[in-house]
């Protein structure tokens, strides 16, 4: 049995994607553990389940390291090389993304050694995600990464997290950005968040107006 276990999760709307990923994993005889989840209040909150799924996968398999892969990805060739990397967690830092990159890291592929430091970082990631339903997993990851932690990180080469229409490399893992199908859902989520902010500002203004009116009448 290989020490490496592929981990992933999916909602019902991603079932076709996860089945394609499964086919690619079977081609290279890779072990995997997929977790079905229910959609959360918004797209961002659903992506925010990622650290919880990863933590549980590590706890379920204490003798194995975990390679997380998004449901909308496909393994192109046999995955090797992780024994050559030093560190608890491997993730791609998006320096070459420039202004086009929405975040400084890509969380579509993550390598996790089954160490106490890794579990500690996942706890911090989960805590940051709990602060705001409208954080996507990259937002909360960055917040956890920017604070003190005991985990060590290494840069996962882009070949492990190639975006199908962006990176001109021969990939191990290719990501097809299925979330682009959900741009309308993301837009609705952002509009809802903006409405909430506007409502809060309106209530604050009314409260201040009432306070000034009351004080002026004294």
From TrEMBL:
Pfam family, one: Nucleotid_trans
Domain Nucleotide-diphospho-sugar transferase: from-to ranges: 46-164
Keyword list, A-Z: Membrane, Transmembrane, Transmembrane helix
SUPFAM superfamilies, A to Z: Nucleotide-diphospho-sugar transferases
Transmembrane annotation, as ranges: 199-216
Annotated protein name in UniProt: Nucleotide-diphospho-sugar transferase domain-containing protein
């Amino acid at each position: 049995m290989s020490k490496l276990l592929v981990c992933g999760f999916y909602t019902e709307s991603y079932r076709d994607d996860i089945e394609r990923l499964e086919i690619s994993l079977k081609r290279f005889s890779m072990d995997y553990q997929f977790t079905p989840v229910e959609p959360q209040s918004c797209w961002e909150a659903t992506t925010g389940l990622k650290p919880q799924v990863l933590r549980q996968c590590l706890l379920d398999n204490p003798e194995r390291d975990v390679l997380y892969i998004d449901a909308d990805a496909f393994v192109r060739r046999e995955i090797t090389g992780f024994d050559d990397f030093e560190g608890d967690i491997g993730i791609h830092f998006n320096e070459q993304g420039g202004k086009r990159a929405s975040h400084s890291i890509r969380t579509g592929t993550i390598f996790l050694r089954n160490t106490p430091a890794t579990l500690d970082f996942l706890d911090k990631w989960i805590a940051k995600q709990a602060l705001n339903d409208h954080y996507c997993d990259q937002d909360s990851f960055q917040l956890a990464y920017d604070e003190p932690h005991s985990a060590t990180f290494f840069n996962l080469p882009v070949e492990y997290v190639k975006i199908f229409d962006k990176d001109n490399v021969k990939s191990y893992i290719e990501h097809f950005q299925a979330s682009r199908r959900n741009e309308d859902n993301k837009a609705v989520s952002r509009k809802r968040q903006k409405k909430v902010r506007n409502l809060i500002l309106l209530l604050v203004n009314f409260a201040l107006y009432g306070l000034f009116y009351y004080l002026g009448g004294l």
